[in-house]
Specification:
The complex is a heterodimer of chains A (266) and B (120).
Chain A: H1 12-15, E1 40-46, H2 53-63, E2 68-73, H3 80-86, E3 90-93, H4 100-113, E4 118-121, H5 133-141, E5 147-151, H6 163-180, E6 192-195, H7 196-204, H8 211-221, E7 226-230, H9 245-264
Parallel strand pairs in A: 1-2, 1-4, 2-3, 5-7
Antiparallel strand pairs in A: 4-6, 5-6
Helix pairs in contact in A: 4-7, 6-8, 6-9, 8-9
Chain B: H1 3-24, H2 30-48, H3 50-60, H4 66-114
Helix pairs in contact in B: 1-2, 2-4, 3-4
Classes of the chains: A alpha/beta (266), B mainly alpha (120).
Chain lengths: 266, 120
C-alpha cells in the first residue's frame, strides 16, 4: 500500500507516481507539476532556539509557503524540537550536539534522500528574511549558479559590524575572492541556496566547525558556480549568539588554516 | 653485563610481553598493536646486541650508544601517537555520520507513525 501524501487523494498521485513510494516529508501540499515548481527544502539549523524559532517558522510560512521546512535540532537542551513539531514542520533531532557543520549536513542528507531539487539554508535565530528567499533562488532557477550566497554587504543596510569583526570580514573576503577569482563580500553568511548538484556534494562532504568559508573553497574547487545576492540581516530575535571576541580570533586563524589546507588537498 | 644493558633488555622485553599478553586476551586489536610490537622488537634487538647498537650510533653520530635507544623509542612513540590522531579523526567522522543517520531514521520513523497505523 503506497503512502498517500499530505494532500490525501490529491491529483499529485496521477502526475507524479514516483513520489508514492517515498515516505512523505514535512510537505505542504503541492498542486503544481514538478516542472514549474522545483521541490524546495528549507534547512533551519537550530541550537537552543526556542525563543526565535516560532517567529522564523511563521516568517517562512508567510513569505515562502511553497518550501518544505526542516528544522535540524542540533542536540538542543531547550524545547526547540517540541516547538518545531508543534508548528507542524519537519524535525530532525540529532542525538547530541554536532556543531553547525554536522547539523547543516544532516539537512543536506535529508534533502538528497527525499529528492529535493533545491535547498535553502536559513538560520533558526531569526536574522534572515524569508521574503528574500525568492530573490536568492533566481540565479539557480535560471541555471546560472549552483550556490547563491545571501550577502549582507552588497547593499547599504543597517548592519554595522564592530571594528575587529570588520577586519576579519575584510581578510576573509580578500582571501576568498583571490581563491575563487570573483568578488565574494560575505563569506560567513549562513543564508544560502543550492541546487541538486550542491546538495549531493554537501551530503557527501561538508566542513565541520566553521563551515561557511571552507565550503565556498571546496565548491569552487569542485567546479561549482558561486554567486552572491544582496540581502538584509536582522538583529537576533531571541536566544544568544555563540560568537565572542576570543572565539572570533581563534575562528579566523582556524578557518584560514583550513582554507589553505583545502587548497593543498588533492 | 652492565646495568644499562640489563635495564634496556628487561624494559623492551617487558613491553613486548605486555603487548602480546593484551593481544592474547583480546584487549588490544592487532591493527593497533603492530607499532607497539615493532617498537618492542627493535628495542629488544638493539639492547641485546651491543655491537649493532654501537655501529648504528656511530653511523648517525651519537657518542653515547645507549641514547640511541631513547631516540628509537621516541620515534616509535611519535609514530604511535600520530597513528592514534589519525584513528581518532576517522572515528569522529564515523561518529558524526552515525548521529546523522540516527536522527534521519528517527525522523522517518516519526513520519511513518504519524501517517497512521493503517499505512504501516
Amino acid at each position: 500500500m503506497p503512502f498517500p501524501g499530505r494532500g490525501g487523494s490529491s491529483p499529485l498521485h496521477l502526475t507524479a507516481p514516483v513520489r508514492l513510494i517515498m515516505i512523505p516529508g514535512p510537505a505542504t501540499c503541492r498542486f503544481l507539476p514538478a516542472q514549474t515548481m522545483p521541490k524546495t527544502l528549507i534547512i533551519v539549523p537550530a541550537y537552543n532556539e526556542e525563543d526565535s524559532l516560532p517567529g522564523v517558522i511563521r516568517d517562512l510560512g508567510m513569505h515562502f509557503p511553497e518550501g518544505d521546512i526542516l528544522v535540524v535540532d542540533d542536540g538542543s537542551r531547550d524545547r526547540t524540537a517540541e516547538i518545531a513539531r508543534a508548528a507542524g514542520v519537519g524535525v530532525v533531532r540529532l542525538p547530541f550536539n554536532l556543531g553547525i557543520g554536522g547539523a547543516v549536513q544532516t539537512g543536506y542528507r535529508y534533502a538528497q534522500r527525499q529528492g529535493y531539487d533545491i535547498a535553502v539554508q536559513f538560520d533558526g535565530d531569526g536574522q534572515h528574511v524569508a521574503a528574500e528567499i525568492r530573490e536568492l533562488l533566481a540565479p539557480i532557477l535560471k541555471g546560472r549558479a549552483d550556490l547563491v550566497v545571501g550577502s549582507r554587504f552588497l547593499k547599504r543596510g543597517d548592519y554595522r559590524p564592530p571594528f575587529l569583526r570588520k577586519v576579519g570580514i575584510w581578510i576573509f573576503s580578500r582571501t576568498l575572492s583571490a581563491i575563487i577569482g570573483a568578488p565574494v563580500t560575505d563569506t560567513t553568511s549562513g543564508f544560502r541556496a543550492v541546487n541538486a548538484r550542491v546538495i549531493a556534494f554537501f551530503a557527501r562532504l561538508y566542513p565541520e566547525d566553521y563551515p561557511e568559508v571552507e565550503s565556498l573553497v571546496l565548491l569552487h574547487r569542485a567546479g561549482m558556480r558561486i554567486e552572491e545576492k544582496a540581502v538584509t540581516m536582522r538583529g537576533r530575535t531571541g536566544g544568544k549568539s555563540s560568537i565572542t571576541p576570543i572565539r572570533s580570533a581563534y575562528y579566523m586563524i582556524k578557518v584560514l588554516l583550513a582554507v589553505f589546507i583545502d587548497l593543498l588537498k588533492k | 653485563m652492565d646495568i644499562v644493558k640489563l635495564l634496556a633488555i628487561t624494559g623492551s622485553a617487558g613491553v613486548l610481553f605486555f603487548v602480546l599478553e593484551l593481544i592474547r586476551r583480546g584487549r588490544l586489536k592487532e591493527r593497533y598493536a603492530l607499532l607497539w610490537l615493532a617498537a618492542g622488537a627493535v628495542l629488544l634487538i638493539l639492547s641485546l646486541s651491543r655491537g649493532l647498537l654501537e655501529t648504528i650510533a656511530k653511523l648517525v653520530g651519537i657518542y653515547y650508544p645507549p641514547s640511541l635507544l631513547f631516540l628509537v623509542a621516541f620515534v616509535f612513540l611519535l609514530l604511535i601517537t600520530l597513528h592514534f590522531s589519525a584513528v581518532i579523526s576517522g572515528l569522529s567522522e564515523k561518529n558524526k555520520h552515525l548521529a546523522q543517520e540516527v536522527a534521519l531514521l528517527r525522523q522517518a520513523l516519526d513520519e511513518l507513525k504519524r501517517s497512521g497505523p493503517e499505512h504501516r
